[in-house]
Fold:
Amino acid sequence: MFSGAQISLYPMTGDFVGVITSALSALDPYRERLRIETDDVSTLLVGPPEVLFPAMRDLFSAAAGTGVHCVLSATISRGCPGEPDDAICQSGQFEGPLAALSERQASALDAVRTAPDMGVSSVAQFSLYVMGQGDHMAEIYGCIDFLKQSGTFEKSKHFATKLSGDTGALFATLEQGFCRFGPPEGHVTIDLTVSANSPSAR
Amino acid sequence: MFSGAQISLYPMTGDFVGVITSALSALDPYRERLRIETDDVSTLLVGPPEVLFPAMRDLFSAAAGTGVHCVLSATISRGCPGEPDDAICQSGQFEGPLAALSERQASALDAVRTAPDMGVSSVAQFSLYVMGQGDHMAEIYGCIDFLKQSGTFEKSKHFATKLSGDTGALFATLEQGFCRFGPPEGHVTIDLTVSANSPSAR
Structure:
């Protein structure tokens, strides 16, 4: 199953190029397990979710750790029927039958509880889309139930859910939402915004 | 049908607050036809697509017209079954039976051809999601056919399509993609990034 993300990092400073360039070294531990391509709008990361989410977490944490107001925006996708398969995306976690929703929610909560502490606070706003089946809202409501128990839930907004907390717990929550809800071989996407150091933050 | 967007504007400058504040006056002509709510991550615009897209276009064009590298990121949605209806969203364009795909493509092309020239060049990258039906990819491929003839198409990317041109034509293309594909009462969303003045642009 093809999976990956188009990501962009926006440091709100005249030295945005410098902040981006210095944060990029945070991707080094992941480079062998990702295919990476950059243009003027975004950087493509192709790889399995268990590599994608930690890579995005470390990149964003490095940029946000400078203290500059930074935003990471990402379009994350798995199982798009229009995308060719790629060996680098291989992951064991989507095999076998779909477990009951309550069981998946419990596993997701465990993963968030054991997430590393990155020492960087931020907020995340995201929309989860489950496509190509009639009852897509059931899986989305199941995911929202998990989010409300995750410890990172801040509030529901129109079209999106807002989380807040340490980037370790945040990206673990996002990874669990992405992997455990919707059919294992289905087409699932996340539209994500992560923000740190905003002067508007309350 | 409920419709709207969560939008964020990212000027890559230390004076990002100033650029955002001065661009906000571009929304003034639309304020009576939109419900607007802001927090530290995004601004919610609730209203029909024929108001939403011109409002986003004028806001982004005002910010990008400063010459600063600016990005507008938006999560745009219509017909989400989890959202209550709102009188401000009323629009005549989703009534009646769904026309043939070729007819919708022709109307969409006409709308892009007659779009105003804003005098601001930019690029747009977006993903269109059509949910809750088995053949969602047919509508997406129909939209891609339209995009390739629109004059704004630049390239297909993994998970997204990239457009380039004047912001007038770009936002007209986006509005047509959003309104004319997928069932009239269906749940359709766009994950959008618009960028101008990037030093990486070719």
